[in-house]
Amino acid sequence: MRAVVFALLAAGAWGAWALFTKLATRTLAPEAVLVVSYLVGSAIGLGFLLWTGEESLLGAFADTPGLSYAVAGGVATGLGSVAYYTGLQSGSVSVVSTVTALYFVVAVLLGVFLLGEPFSATKALGVALAIGAVVLLSQ
């Protein structure tokens, strides 16, 4: 249940992020919005790391495989964000955010094929319905 609560908080925060990003790209270049947003987000992440006190700052970055994956995730986040922010500059937030929300389909497929996570008929139906919803919402 705790995971669902945090997932709902993240969904709310990311919904607000889409709105504020759209407003920002009305007057700023997408690259500037990206840098400012990620600097502020990074500061919040660093503050959270220090606040939790679960690991020392150096210990958090000592795991080399984890660090490599974090760097790869940062590259993917950066590329996706540049595409997203640039799309927002010329498109509507409802279309760009809705189509971008299909990232979870990519995550499901990567989880199944690369991590060996289970995939059932129920999950396949859920993915199909979600894709249908995105198509309808982006019209």
List the helices and strands and how they pair.
Layout: H1 2-24, H2 30-52, H3 57-60, H4 64-90, H5 93-100, H6 103-115, H7 121-137
Task: Give a structural overview.
This protein has 139 residues and is mostly helical. The chain folds into two domains: 2-91, no CATH class; 101-139, no CATH class. The protein is 83% helix and 0% strand. The chain has seven helices and no strands. Helix 2 (30-52) runs antiparallel to helix 4 (64-90). The longest helix is centred in the middle third of the chain and has 27 residues, at 64-90. It is globular, with a radius of gyration of 17 Å. The model has no long low-confidence stretch (mean pLDDT 86).
Name the shape in a single word: globular
Terminal Cα span: 34 Å
Radius of gyration over all CA atoms, rounded: 17 Å
- Biggest sheet, open or closed, and with what strands and sense? none
Quick structural overview:
The protein has 139 residues and is an all-alpha fold.
Task: List descriptors.
mainly alpha
